[in-house]
Amino acid sequence: MPRLKDALAGALPKDFNCRMRYIHTSPKPCDPLFSAPPGEDPERTKLASHFLTISTPSLSSANGFEYRDAGHHFVFAMEILVYSTRRLIAMFVSKADSTGYLPRRRPSPVRVIATTFLKWLSDRLRHPRKRLVISLFARSQPTYLFPGSAKTGKKHILTDHQLTSWWVRVLDSLIRQKADVPNQNRDWQGYITVPNFNGMAEVRRFLPPDNVSSSAKPRWKRGDPLQELAITRGLPETVPTRCLLPRFPDDPKGRFIQDLDDEVGLTEDTVTASPSKKKQGVWLSVKNLDTFWTVMEARQECSSGQVVGFLWLVEERRQDEASCSGTTRAHVQSSQSTGMNDSQTYDIQQNKSQPSQTSQSSIGSQSSSQKRRGRLTGPITARQPRLKGGSCNISATSEPSFGLINDKSDAPMLTSEGYDCAMQILLQLDFSSAEGAAQSTAKWVSEVSGMVALTPESWVVEVCGTAEITALSDQAQNGNGAPATNDLGSLVRKKKRKVDDSLEPTIAAVDEASLVNTLVGRKKLKA
To answer: What is the Cα–Cα distance from 347 to 345, expressed in whole angstroms?
Structure first.
């Protein structure tokens, strides 16, 4: 598998050079991403953070001219949070921001870097027994990671419509790249939900024009994959709605879920939670996902006149999709269309599964009592020491563990506390001017270098683009993958205005008089 440096170099234009700095954390236990069904333990979840920065030589002003300085300043950064459960790997695009100090060019290096980073990380996170999901929340803001960058006047701040469309184009590139790879047994399926935009006709303005074709299914669908992911997680079709929704940080869905929990006294804390409410695990006002999104449209974050978008990419296996049973599909459709509330359906499911659980437990107790341990005999063989938390089915000589990067020089690994400290330092810097951005970049690099006990030059990676990209090939597509409209206005010969016949001689006479210059000798003035 190629390194991130090689992936970026192969995607960026040939004349584009930059510096890459990449930090990450190892997967550590965290709060559950999903609420547990009533009577069950929360699903074990691990969190790993990945942060990529791109810097270019800084520009300084002198005598009205700009020249490249010896220092560097950040031009783009992107943070991705990776949640790993037993059957699911969720990549959440937490933040992505630019400073505006990168000169505009086509194709945009920012979009190329974002697409390449997502593809490279998703390829490393692929697991044979887990399903991969990419999720993000698009909301237009002046700044996300670089304070003061909106004051420079060079930063191109996208509107709410433009930002949602931009992220759709970024994720759509992943779908196209997956489809172009031969012998690939997995595909991406995109989902989009834009509150207050009902119907596919209204959402189509954010999608590529060639989303629907006669030869293949649509790459993007309106809605969400939460019911489908519930089946992947092994949940019954009658599970309460709150168990289907993820709780990502700084996400309006998570804040709305917390408000609904507070209304009925549901909390994730086992000490303060109400036993009766926790036993039911249902909301009073929201009974299904359709109602959740309907009420979500009235929330301040979605109804303040600004368009926001919820985007997902779900990795689908072609073989599994072809052999998928009709009962599974019927379960998904019935759970979406049924009008029964969560408490009734989940009680029925529990009553059905209760006899089987008791019978299995009795059989297991009988078999365990009948078995007797034999005395161990023979020579004792010493085992090789194993790192704490390592996987027992992955040998030390095999490829690196899924999602782990062991190249310390290219990607320093920080502790969770050190990573949080590095992000807090970045949010306290100033990028309102080119000189201030260069100083802030140097300060952040110095602080992180001290955390990982490295020099600033030892973990920087020089990236030189190698892709042959011409301006014509980029202009051939209008951002969404559609052919650009050719402007033939300069090639069309305009018709001459008709002139009245009565005025024609007069105009001709005036033209002839203006064209003939008569030279008359100058008379000498008498003294």
So the answer is: 5
Q: Range of 192's domain? A: 4-233+305-322+408-475
Over the stretch 374-424, which tens digit does the pLDDT of each residue have?
Answer: 777 888 887 766 555 433 333 333 333 334 444 444 678 999 999 999 999
Look at the chain and report how many structural domains it folds into.
1
Between CA 62 and CA 66 the distance in angstroms is 6
Q: Is residue 210 part of a domain?
A: yes
Domain-embedded: residue 495: no
Between 2-16, 36-50, 238-252, 338-352, the lowest mean confidence (pLDDT) is in 338-352
Largest separation between any pair of C-alpha atoms in the chain = 147
Q: Determine, yes or no, domain membership for 190.
A: yes
Number of Cβ atoms within 10 Å of the Cβ of 9:
23
Cβ neighbors of 339 (< 8 A, separation 6 or more) are: none
CA distance 99 to 399: 37
Q: Is 242 exposed, middle or buried (0-12, 13-18, 19+ CB in 10 A)?
A: buried
417: its two tokens: 């506390």
Neighbours of 384 (CB within 10 A): 6
Does residue 334 sit within a domain? no
Nearest C-alpha neighbor of 5 from the set 329, 317, 459? 459
Element (DSSP H or E) covering residue 52 = strand 46-62
